[in-house]
Design goal:
161 residues, mainly alpha, 0% strand, flat
Length: 161
């Protein structure tokens, strides 16, 4: 008899639970199975990916696992907040959406020091800044923010000899 990994069991259980929820939803549409808990479908894989990342050997740790797992966790928390507030605040906090990718990219950049991680994080930070200024009716100040952030990104660039 071969040993089945805990991760395989958890993933299989996750898929079975999703299938059962879909089955119940199709058989009894009046039952609100998903209600406010559908962001769990995003949170659970994020936690799974992050636990796999933490548990793996240091030489096998891949930045994309870290970025994607953290993104799924942060994004699902954003969705939970909106779900439980009835999406009432979405127009005010939609600038947080790009931050769900900015945060993992910049944290990965701090760990692996890859320039592309910083650049992508900066781009999503700029998008988030524009949405925030737009929501506050100060979008005309966005270009000043861009110039400041481009200047900050120049600090990060290494000198080429």
């Amino acid at each position: 008899m071969h040993k089945v990994s805990l991760w395989r069991v958890l993933f299989a259980s996750y898929i079975i639970i999703i299938g059962l929820i879909i089955l119940v939803q199709n058989l009894a549409p009046q039952v609100a199975v998903w209600a406010g808990f559908w962001p769990l479908l995003i949170l659970i894989p994020g936690i799974y990916i992050m636990l796999h990342f933490v548990e793996s050997h240091p030489s096998q740790k891949k930045p994309y696992e870290y970025i994607f797992g953290l993104f799924l966790i942060i994004f699902s928390l954003f969705l939970f907040f909106n779900q439980f507030t009835g999406w009432f605040y979405y127009d005010l906090i939609n600038f947080v959406l790009p931050l769900t990718l900015t945060i993992p990219m910049l944290l990965a950049w701090l760990r692996w020091q890859k320039k592309w991680m910083f650049d992508i994080g900066l781009i999503f930070f700029l998008v988030s800044g524009f949405w925030l200024l737009y929501n506050l009716h100060y979008a005309q100040y966005f270009y000043a923010l861009v110039v400041i952030l481009v200047g900050l990104s120049l600090f990060e660039r290494k000198k080429v000899r």
